[in-house]
Specification:
Length: 64
């Protein structure tokens, strides 16, 4: 099953894999633990954000 989500935390807590696109190109592909990291998110979005583990899932708390 494939689901397109723009809400990162929902993808992180429900998906087995995440494929991140930027400019129509795949820039990251992996598990939520692999993709929802500060270096990967910085590369995708271009600014730092805070990620913490909540209930066993990487969770984006806020943008800086």
């Amino acid at each position: 099953m494939v689901i397109v989500l723009h809400y990162i935390n929902q993808a992180g807590s429900h998906a087995d894999r995440i494929v991140a696109l930027k400019g129509g190109q795949v820039v990251a592909n992996g598990t939520p633990m692999e993709i929802l990291t500060l270096p990967t998110l910085l590369g995708i979005f271009g600014f730092e954000m805070r990620v913490e583990m909540i209930d066993g899932y990487p969770t984006l708390l806020h943008f800086r």
